[in-house]
TrEMBL record:
Residue sites binding ATP per the record: K60
Domain of life: Eukaryota
Disordered: annotated segments: 292-327
Keyword terms, alphabetized: Apoptosis, ATP-binding, Kinase, Nucleotide-binding, Nucleus, Phosphoprotein, Serine/threonine-protein kinase, Transferase
EC number(s) stated in the UniProt entry for this protein: 2.7.11.1
Catalysis performed (reactions): L-threonyl-[protein] + ATP = O-phospho-L-threonyl-[protein] + ADP + H(+); L-seryl-[protein] + ATP = O-phospho-L-seryl-[protein] + ADP + H(+)
Predominant cellular place of this UniProt entry's protein: nucleus
Acyltransferase keyword on record: no
GO biological process: apoptotic process; intracellular signal transduction; positive regulation of apoptotic process
Keyword Nucleus found: yes
Family designation: Belongs to the protein kinase superfamily. CAMK Ser/Thr protein kinase family. DAP kinase subfamily.
Record protein name field: Serine/threonine-protein kinase 17A
MF terms (GO), sorted A to Z: ATP binding; protein serine/threonine kinase activity
Length: 327
């Protein structure tokens, strides 16, 4: 049988073109003191400045051994996916990779605005406005459509893995964390990968095949959270959350959704569907009426001479590193 040369059975890519540097990372980068940017079970992300350029990056330190298992190939896959997505402005850029005896270090474009999670749960005045949600959701969908077109499923889409280039003024999104991502191919089934309880689709809980539609479920949850600041299926414990998901225990007439525009609710309804094949695809979502609503007229901003109806939401050339910091 034919197995694609660069793809193993488990949906992992194994070919990368980024050179893996083995000289000392700390000779080339200095830590910027302060809180670490993030931390997961096996990774910690910290802010560094590249000595020779003065540019700021996020360095993701990933342990190669996890629970006594060698996970180097999974990290190589994460690198390969970032490489595959370099031409999408909505996926974080990979600058360099270092390797030590125990770790791999991914030097990533720094997303200065942090996780969209923070705005999701913020007080009303700091929370996203409906037009922000529409603009950011379009970017997320364009990023995901690009990945899906290239047979990559993210499988861990949640507000902690969608970052912002800046938070005030609100910048653009960057999708991060391809640690659970997989290649989906027509000739082999993928099951069993586990995301984060609140955001996983019913087919994951039921050990049914995973597909690009699995991400689309999570997009539905994400939309709900960005619009309401609450998590639609979260129960008091894991069991209850799983039950809520597998029973699609969601009400569209709750207090949380009061005042949310009907097209946005229809959008979520087209995704939070048990049967994966019936969910809207990323491309279909981009055509959804909710996302066709025109952006609000620009506020006069000094030199601003924007004709009504014209927007600046088309991505300008996204360069190598964190824009939006200088403003
Ligand atoms: P994990 O696999 O441990 O979840 P992530 O790649 O999601 O690792 O990184 C963990 C956290 O670190 C993210 O949720 C985010 O808060 C922060 N982070 C990751 N990458 C960046 C980046 N490029 N810029 C700024 N913060 C980042
Ligand atoms: Mg993460």
């Amino acid at each position: 049988q034919v197995v694609e040369a660069n793809q193993s059975r488990s949906g992992l890519l194994s070919d990368i073109r980024t050179p893996i540097k083995t000289d000392a990372f700390h000779d080339h980068y200095s830590l910027i003191p302060g809180r670490e940017l993030g931390r997961g079970k096996f990774a910690v992300v910290k802010k560094y400045v590249e000595k020779c350029t003065g540019k700021v990056y996020a360095a993701k330190f990933m342990r190669k051994r996890r629970k006594g298992q060698d996970c180097r190939l999974e990290i190589i896959h994460e690198i390969a996916v970032l490489e595959l997505a370099t031409s999408s402005p909505w996926v974080v850029d990979l600058h360099e990779v270092y390797e030590t005896a125990s770790e791999m270090i991914l030097v990533l474009e720094f997303a200065a605005g942090g996780e969209i999670f923070n705005q999701c749960v913020a007080e009303r005045d700091e929370a996203f406005k409906p037009e922000d949600v529409r603009r950011l959701m379009r970017q997320i969908l364009e990023g995901i459509a690009y990945l899906h077109k290239n047979s990559v499923v993210h499988l861990d889409l949640k507000p902690q893995n969608i970052l912002l280039t800046s938070d005030s003024p609100l910048g653009d999104i960057k999708i991060v964390d391809f640690g659970l991502s997989r290649m989906v191919s027509s000739n082999q089934e993928l099951r069993e990968i586990m995301g984060t309880p609140e955001y996983v689709a019913p087919e994951i809980l039921n050990y049914e095949p995973i597909s690009t539609a699995t991400d689309m479920w999570s997009i539905g949850v994400l939309a709900y959270m960005m619009l309401t600041g609450t998590s639609p299926f979260l129960g008091d414990d894991k069991q209850e959350t799983f039950l809520n998901i597998s029973q699609i225990n969601i009400s569209y007439s709750t207090e949380e959704l009061q005042g949310i525009e009907q097209p946005a609710i229809d959008f979520m309804k087209s995704l939070l569907i048990k049967e994966p094949q019936q969910r809207a695809t990323a491309e279909e979502c981009l055509q959804h009426p909710w996302l066709q609503l025109p952006p609000p007229p620009k506020e006069a901003e000094g030199a601003g001479d924007t004709a009504s109806g014209q927007t600046c939401s088309v991505p300008l050339t996204i360069s190598e590193s964190g824009e939006g910091e200088q403003g």
